[in-house]
């Protein structure tokens, strides 16, 4: 250990790294076996070396205790500590009624809070303490992660008020004057979209070809694309022409939608339906494994496709799958669709009729048809002009 580090004799698992600007980052990092026990990396504070040293030692003692008892002890439900509050929240319907993906994100953030603050009393937190933690997180992990973690903490304190563990209107995470991160604005161009489709086809991934089309041409999230059901695609007559309509219930908000399948995507969807095995319910099945596309498998396939496509279109290195949903909005608006019509496709406006699947909700189907029809590739003359 070199002498110019902030803590010359750090306890086990305390890490120190100097940034390019000369400042130091301190954190406690558990190894894999300890992570499996429920512990997670915890940011420390280079401005409070004594506190950081003591916090690392406290965490190490917690690890030793967990090993001695065969795993992390579950806190008593009545304990007025953050660990006890988290235990109560995990058992509440406030968590269970959230979308599965949101629950996963919350559980991950709750583990970080438990590791850092689990032994602290719920009543002992103040606005200055939370502001200091926000600043520490902002320096170590950036404004987006700092805001997300403090919002999770705020949810916990609001829950504490409901449980009577804190007085009403004493949430120390409110009005902290946090820096609001700028929203992501990346959208794909048509050349990038074509390169992705071609790359997925070259790699022998027909399900991913369809997934890219279902998001880019229909504006749906990855989870809803992965969970698209074969029986969710129903024949319909639109403007006197036979078409497929995608009937879905969006996972995040529970809204139902009737989205006509874009002409460019319809052959892909029909081919997958025709190739489905007896008893198959999900539309997208991985070609290599024969399994449904889990979130992890989907991400691995997407990364491989993006790398392959970026060989010809380097700008794709910065594109994320979620950007395809935004691309739909950009393309549809450019084609003349109204904001309201696009909102019906995205599922964040009037597409919430509980009887939609039975009735097709004609006004909504009409608006989603306009929005999807507005998405069109530019012609040769338009491409030259652009």
Major beta sheet, strand line-up? 1-2-3
Gyration radius over CA: 25 Å
- Alpha carbon gap, first and last residue: 58 Å
Q: Which class of secondary structure composition applies to the elements?
A: mainly alpha
For the structure shown, list the relevant keywords.
386 residues, mainly alpha, DNA polymerase, domain 1, hpI Integrase, Chain A, 3-stranded antiparallel β-sheet, 17 helices
Q: Summary?
A:
With 386 residues, the chain is mainly alpha-helical.
Structural write-up:
By secondary structure, the chain is mainly alpha-helical. It folds into three domains: 1-73, no CATH class; 76-176, DNA polymerase, domain 1; 190-385, Intergrase catalytic core (hpI Integrase, Chain A, Orthogonal Bundle). 49% of the residues lie in helices and 8% in strands. It is built from 17 helices and six strands. The chain has a three-stranded antiparallel β-sheet with strand order 1-2-3. A three-stranded antiparallel β-sheet has the order 4-5-6. Helix 3 (82-91) packs antiparallel against helix 5 (100-117), helix 8 crosses helix 12 (295-310) and helix 14 crosses helix 16 (362-373). The model is unreliable at 73-78 and 349-363 (pLDDT under 50).
Write the layout of secondary structure elements.
Layout: E1 14-18, E2 24-28, H1 32-35, E3 42-43, H2 49-68, H3 82-91, H4 93-96, H5 100-117, H6 127-141, H7 143-163, H8 190-202, H9 206-216, H10 222-226, E4 233-238, E5 241-249, E6 256-260, H11 266-275, H12 295-310, H13 323-334, H14 339-346, H15 356-359, H16 362-373, H17 380-385
Antiparallel strand pairs: 1-2, 2-3, 4-5, 5-6
Helix pairs in contact: 3-5, 6-7, 8-9, 8-12, 14-16
């Amino acid at each position: 250990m070199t002498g110019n580090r902030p803590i010359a004799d750090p306890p086990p698992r305390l890490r120190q790294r100097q940034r390019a600007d000369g400042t130091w980052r301190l954190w406690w990092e558990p190894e894999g076996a300890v992570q499996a026990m429920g512990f997670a990396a915890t940011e420390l504070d280079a401005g409070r070396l004594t506190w950081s040293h003591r916090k690392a030692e406290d965490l190490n003692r917690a690890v030793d205790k967990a090993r001695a008892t065969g795993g992390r002890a579950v806190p008593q439900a009545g304990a007025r500590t953050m660990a006890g509050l988290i235990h109560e929240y995990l058992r509440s319907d406030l968590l269970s009624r959230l979308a599965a993906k949101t629950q996963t994100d919350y559980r991950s953030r709750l583990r970080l809070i438990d590791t850092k603050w689990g032994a602290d009393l719920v009543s002992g937190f103040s606005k200055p303490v939370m502001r200091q933690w926000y600043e520490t997180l902002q320096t170590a992990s950036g404004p987006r992660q700092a805001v997300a973690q403090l919002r999770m903490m705020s949810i916990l304190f609001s829950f504490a008020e409901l449980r009577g563990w804190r007085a009403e209107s004493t949430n120390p995470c409110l009005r902290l004057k946090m820096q609001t991160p700028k929203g992501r604005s990346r959208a794909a161009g048509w050349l990038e979209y074509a390169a992705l489709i071609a790359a997925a086809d070259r790699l022998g991934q027909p399900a991913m070809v369809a997934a890219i089309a279902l998001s880019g041409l229909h504006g749906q999230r990855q989870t809803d694309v992965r969970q698209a059901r074969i029986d969710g695609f129903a024949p319909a007559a639109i403007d006197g022409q036979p078409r497929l309509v995608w009937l879905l219930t969006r996972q995040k908000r529970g809204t139902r939608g009737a989205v006509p399948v874009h002409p460019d995507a319809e052959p892909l969807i029909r081919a997958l339906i025709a190739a489905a095995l007896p008893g198959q319910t999900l539309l997208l099945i991985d070609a290599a494994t024969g399994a449904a596309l889990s979130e992890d498998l989907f991400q691995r396939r997407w990364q491989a496709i993006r790398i392959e496509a970026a060989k010809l279109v380097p700008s794709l290195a910065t594109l994320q799958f979620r950007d395809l949903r935004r691309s739909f909005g950009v393309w549809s608006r450019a084609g003349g669709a109204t904001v309201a019509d696009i909102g019906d496709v995205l599922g964040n406006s009037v597409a919430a009729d509980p009887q939609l699947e039975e009735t097709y909700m004609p006004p909504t189907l009409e608006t989603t048809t306009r929005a999807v029809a507005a998405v069109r590739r530019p012609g040769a003359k338009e491409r030259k002009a652009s």
